[in-house]
Amino acid sequence: MADTKENILMTSLHLFARDGYEAVSVSTISGELGMTKGALYKHYKNKRDIFDSIVERMYKIDAERSVQYRVPDGQKNEGIAVSWDTVKQFTVAQYKFWTEDDFAQSFRKMLTLEQYRNDEMAQLYQSCISAGPVDYMESIFSQMIADGNMKKADSKLLATEFYAPMFLLINISDHSAYKEQNLELLNNHIERFIRRNSADRIERKE
After folding, report:
1. Contact between 98 and 170 (Cβ < 8 Å)
2. CA 152, CA 203: separation in Å to the nearest integer?
3. Half-sphere exposure of 177 (CA within 13 A, CB side)
4. How far apart are the first and last CA of the chain?
């Protein structure tokens, strides 16, 4: 039962990522799976129910990763102390997640396709992939500045500067034959950013 429900969800997501959410019907999904619509409806009420389950899973993964890397979850753990090592580990993990994980890749592609046709998809794209991560890093950098771990500067500008190369590398990853080099570029960017923005000992004492 659980395997069937999971198969329906992932097959649907792959179709949404390939053809767009609006273009895929329940008939298309059931046909791809080789089952009747009636059999599919035993697991999900409709296409919207499948989509809601996909979004719910993404938010659950986000929450789990926040716990795993000990970073704020954007809701209840604000003010948590974050080190530069944590920033680097979390950023690299996020990059690998969006470019290597099947669920995350398909989710991102679905939103990329639909953001210009569906306001809800556009908001999700902004929240999960573009503006949302910038806002998230801004909150982390603001806390790091307050804690004396980061030089005083405009946290919004810092967040944009930090995330922009990652956003670019995520977007070119689907058509790039140089994934290892792209990851190396990201690591070098992070190291350079840390060297430029880490508070020195004098600033820490002040």
Report:
1. yes
2. 9
3. 0
4. 61
